Amino acid sequence: MQKVDDRENSQEGYVLTLSSKLLLKDHWRFPAVTSDAFLKPWKSFGGWVKGGNGETAFEAAHGKSVWNYAVENPEFFIWLNEVMAADSKVTSSVLVTQYKALFEGVTSLVDVGGGIGFMSRAIAEAFPHIKCSVLDLPHVVASCKGTENLEFVGGDMFQAIPSADALLLKAILHDWTDEDCFKILKRCREAILSTKKKGKLIIMDIVMDSKGTHETLELQLLFDMLLMVNTDGIERSEREWEKLFNEAGFTSYKITPVSSFRSIIEVFP
């Protein structure tokens, strides 16, 4: 807590610091900093680094991957969706207000791995002419309800992705290895090309930049560590992104920074 002196009203009081605000239930990062399932892997981190069992520290702590753990533990599954939805709450407002040009000429969009659809709902509301679809595993979207221009599709992004003018991958690829990303990107390219129109893939993820400010690089490295602890993924530099795009058959890309640590990458088949 911080002590403040309100000179205008001649009152003293206390306000929350930036750190303590994280503990408010309505703070967008609350689920990520209070879930025991997320905290436990850090307790196993030291032993895991020294050669402990498991592909990740999460697996060393829980005996299974974060994805399998979510399937078997409904409470954690809810927490995980809350984390992703909280992040999308911040990102979506920026996307639909400050980057409207992204959606020019787009009539259909698939949010690949879009969870419970927070991001897609914002896009569907802001652009009623766009038919939006959320693709995620059947158990994820089973209870989700669509709207006039929003539908939920149960499926597997490694197997097939519905066709659309634009595909959206928000904070998805950084969870996976290069080999898995290649598979996902190949499916994305197939889905875009099948429309016979000039489509694109929209990626919202971190592009590691050693030339940025110290604070930005520090935040990006923190996210990289979070991925190392909980998943098989990594945060990637522009060169690493370019390598993935080329291997998957894409012809060009454009990077637009949208925050201090995250970027929009438009990728064209």
Automatic annotation (TrEMBL):
<keyword id="KW-0489">Methyltransferase</keyword>
<protein>
    <recommendedName>
        <fullName>O-methyltransferase C-terminal domain-containing protein</fullName>
    </recommendedName>
</protein>
<dbReference type="InterPro" id="IPR001077">
    <property type="entry name" value="COMT_C"/>
</dbReference>
<dbReference type="Pfam" id="PF00891">
    <property type="entry name" value="Methyltransf_2"/>
</dbReference>
<keyword id="KW-0808">Transferase</keyword>
<feature type="domain" description="O-methyltransferase C-terminal">
    <location>
        <begin position="42"/>
        <end position="250"/>
    </location>
</feature>
<keyword id="KW-0949">S-adenosyl-L-methionine</keyword>
<dbReference type="GO" id="GO:0032259">
    <property type="term" value="P:methylation"/>
</dbReference>
<dbReference type="InterPro" id="IPR029063">
    <property type="entry name" value="SAM-dependent_MTases_sf"/>
</dbReference>
<dbReference type="GO" id="GO:0008171">
    <property type="term" value="F:O-methyltransferase activity"/>
</dbReference>
<dbReference type="InterPro" id="IPR016461">
    <property type="entry name" value="COMT-like"/>
</dbReference>
